[in-house]
Design brief:
The complex is a heterodimer of chains A (about 200) and B (about 475). With about 200 residues, chain A is of the alpha/beta class. Chain A has one domain: Aconitase, domain 4 (Alpha-Beta Barrel). Chain A is about 30% helix and about 15% strand. Helix content of chain B is about 35%, strand content about 15%. Chain B has 17 helices and 19 strands. In chain B, helix 2 links the parallel strand 3 and strand 4. Chain B has 2 domains: about 190 residues, Aconitase, domain 3 (2-Layer Sandwich), CATH 3.30.499.10; about 180 residues, Aconitase, domain 3 (2-Layer Sandwich), CATH 3.30.499.10. Classes of the chains: A alpha/beta (about 200), B alpha/beta (about 475). At the A-B interface, helix 2, helix 4, helix 6, helix 7 and helix 8 of A face strand 1, helix 2, helix 3, helix 5 and strand 8 of B.
Chain lengths: ~200, ~475
């Protein structure tokens, strides 16, 4: 399986402030009554963006200035809670190609990487600088450089780390591990043969 | 070199190193449910893949099942479609399905242990973050995403980076009226909701040595709420006693061999941990959350935090956001807060002992006027056990609706939902904004007995006072 080598993502950004933004908030459970991921993009951050009567609430994603942004910025522990892949799927289907946050919850981070969405961590101070630059000029191009582990914007460069295993997978086009895992299937069967609980009779 | 259980289980299941440095890890046991698996089967079909070891995947249905309707078709056609899809996938790919007709259906994290599928020294994965529950048996159990479900179906393995291990010792004795739920809410309060990122939590000490399997499950269940992807307790006689005779537990001579093997997986004395934390059991009080994440908890006798007294700007903003959503007043006691709904159940606290403990105390008491109280067994087997013991009748006489097994109001992907900004005293695991089905619904997490105390008084209450528990 040949996959795109994701070395950098360039585009406009939008900052969704807050820490501990959980996956229920990213995509409320009631929108998961589906057997495909199609159409989830529409419900991204639904309850933060919509009133009960369907009208818009003030939210960065409802702000026309940030429409078409492809880089999502947020705070600490982004994506905590439920393991639902519906969350990164909704983010991707909404049009985002990369996320920069102070740090990420573990399962969410893995789910994003497997979908080819780089998750880069930047300091709070640097995130605030990027957010201020976007606020000043929503058309500003932001570059998330996965290889160099940096975010470039308005002539500035800040550190944005991508964990080594994820970085390797993204820049070398092996973020979806299925091909490699299938190659290892005979080895997996050999490992399983040493574990009695995996025997068919067990 | 002495090793931790985590290291031993990891070594026994490591297939090989992948190009990016992660490990291809064998997943001995794979559990699936209707919400996160259908897309994975779709990917399998798209790629023309077969399930590598169909006898090692077990399915049940829990999130979307109504708890007030057992016959199909369900009133909600979307729920019925998900049910049908799971049935079709299990049939087509040859997977064991604990459907309602088997009498063994229930919340996936209750079914695995109940059937004896969850065993020490094993690796377990499930597309559900509360998979950490199974760590109570000395298994390394991970919540995974849907693409990883595909990986496990196709190869019985997944790509994973190794976790660090933090040992959490809880020594001494818990005071009367303090439960496993309070222990984990206290741990999360102390270590934070992302304190466990990158770690597996190994729980130990005298309190865990004395805990039953159901209590250990309650704690391990919420490891993920502290950011730890896995949490476990070393296997011991309590573990083996629980598993003996269960449908999928080894039988006869194989049993003794299995117990010997399981014992060997326990962490060796003197093994190295990446971090060690000590918590005094006697310092833990009945705990209630007041905010919008499980780390925002206080002892029942404390007051709701005041943002003006916060140490840092960040903390102040977090408290303000939470109080605005929760519509609670800073500096006031949490005790006495009016509730609307009481929910007993979930993979955290939907087991026999949870209902037994509540029934023991609510016998002869009544749910307060105007309070909706529901009791939802975690599995059909839990329901049957409760019904045999008359627990269902005690709860019903007290004014709780006794329901059929499912996830129910923990995440409200079924008809059990909060309405508007109702405030719910809940034995579940998450108090996130909108978690219980209403975008403005409010959740207070607490132990089952504290939920019962809230139900009978109509307010957040100290169960030790309401039920005269000497403390």
């Amino acid at each position: 399986m040949s996959l795109e080598k994701i070395t950098r993502v360039a585009g406009r950004g939008v900052f969704v402030p807050g820490n501990d933004i959980d996956t229920d908030r990213i995509i409320p459970a009631r929108f998961m009554k589906c057997v495909t991921f199609d159409g989830l993009g529409e419900y991204l951050f639904h309850d933060a963006r919509k009133n009960a009567d369907g009208t818009d609430r003030p939210h960065p994603l409802n702000d026309p200035r940030f429409k078409g942004a492809t880089i999502l910025l947020s705070g600490a522990n982004f994506g905590c809670g439920s393991s639902r892949e519906h969350a990164p799927q909704a983010i991707q289907k909404h049009g985002f190609r990369a996320i920069v946050a102070e740090n990420f919850a573990e399962i969410f981070f893995g789910n994003c990487t497997t979908l080819g969405i780089p998750c880069a961590t930047a300091s709070r101070v640097d995130l605030a600088r990027i957010a201020a630059a976007i606020e000043a000029n929503p058309q500003l191009e932001i570059v998330v450089d996965v290889t160099a582990q940096a975010v470039r914007f308005a002539g500035q460069t800040v550190r944005a780390e991508v964990r080594p295993a994820a970085r390797d997978a993204l820049v070398n086009g092996r973020w979806d591990p299925i091909g490699e895992l299938l190659e290892g299937l005979p080895a997996a069967r050999a490992t399983a043969a040493h574990l009695p609980y995996l025997a068919r009779e067990a | 070199m002495p090793k931790s259980l985590f290291e031993k289980v990891w070594a026994a299941h490591a297939v090989r190193e992948l190009a990016n440095g992660q490990t291809q890890l064998l997943v001995g046991t794979h559990l699936i449910h209707e919400v996160t698996s259908p897309q994975a089967f779709g990917m399998m079909r798209d790629l023309g893949l077969k399930v590598a070891m169909p006898h090692r995947t077990f399915a049940t249905v829990d999130h979307i099942v109504p708890t007030d309707q057992v016959s199909e078709p369900y009133r909600d056609p979307l729920a019925q479609a998900m049910m049908d899809e799971l049935r079709r996938n299990c049939t087509e790919f040859g997977i064991t399905f604990f459907d309602r007709s088997t009498g063994r259906q229930g919340i996936v994290h209750i079914v695995g242990p109940e059937q004896g599928i969850t065993q020490p020294g094993t690796t377990i994965a499930c597309g559900d973050s509360h998979t950490s529950t199974h760590g109570a048996f000395g298994a390394i159990a991970f919540g995974i995403g849907t693409t990883q479900i595909r990986d496990v179906l196709a190869t019985q393995t997944m790509a994973l980076g190794r976790l660090k291990v933090r040992r959490i010792n809880v020594n001494g004795r818990l005071r009367p009226g303090v439960y496993a739920k309070d222990v984990i809410l206290h741990i999360i309060r102390v270590l934070g909701v992302n304190g466990g990122t990158g770690y597996a939590y190994e729980y130990g000490g005298e309190v865990f040595d004395r805990f039953t399997m159901e209590e250990r499950m309650t704690v391990c269940n919420m490891s993920i709420e502290g950011g730890a992807r896995a949490g476990y307790v070393n296997p011991d006689e309590t573990t083996f006693d629980y598993l003996r005779g269960r449908p999928y537990a080894p039988k006869a001579a194989a049993w003794d061999a299995a117990v010997a093997r399981w014992r060997g997986f326990a962490s060796d004395p003197g093994c190295q941990y990446d971090d060690v934390v000590a918590i005094a059991g006697s310092a833990i009080a009945p705990t209630v959350t007041w905010g919008i994440n499980p780390g925002q908890g206080i002892a029942i006798n404390e007051t709701i935090p005041d943002p003006a007294k916060a140490q840092a700007a960040d903390e102040r903003a977090a408290i303000e956001e939470a109080l605005a959503y929760m519509k609670l007043q800073p500096g006031t006691p949490i005790k006495g807060t009016r509730i609307d709904v009481a929910f007993l159940g979930s993979c955290t606290n939907g087991r026999l002992s949870d209902f037994q403990e509540v029934a023991r105390h609510v016998r002869g008491r009544r749910v307060a006027a105007g309070i909706k109280a529901i009791a939802v067994p975690g599995s059909q087997i839990v329901a049957l056990q409760c019904e045999k013991l008359g627990i269902d009748r005690v709860l019903a006489e007290a004014g709780f609706e006794w329901r059929a097994a499912g996830c129910s109001m923990c995440l409200a992907m079924n008809p059990d939902k909060l309405v508007g900004d109702q405030l719910c005293a809940s034995s579940s695991n998450r108090n996130f904004k909108g978690r219980q089905g209403s975008p403005t619904g409010r959740t207070l997490l607490m132990s089952p007995l504290m939920v019962a105390a809230a139900a009978v008084t109509g307010t957040v209450a100290d169960a030790r006072e309401v039920f005269a528990v000497a403390h």
